[in-house]
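ArsR family transcriptional regulator
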Amino acid sequence: MKSKHLTGDQLLAALSALSNPHRLRVVAALASGGRNYVSQLAREIGISRPLLHLHLQKLEQAGLVTSQMELSADGKALNYFEAADFAIELTPAQIAAAATTLSTNSDN
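Structure:
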């Protein structure tokens, strides 16, 4: 995801996803440590797996992380996540351009 091509809705989704400290920690852990599976990532960040799943879902919906299900050597399914390649530039001009493409006029 590159910022020059973000619609208003995509920009809102990305900013909303990044507005939570747990989600910032998730992106930071994946950016610095590379791809990781949910259980290990939950241990590293210090949150429960169910809570991590909720945060990962929000980040994935915003296009900030990607996931891939893989089988381990013992046949266990592991869902690996990694940080997506994204850059978000926030300038008044970028915000003005994105605002023209918003699908909703709500203020929430």
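The beta strands are 36-37, 65-71, 77-83.
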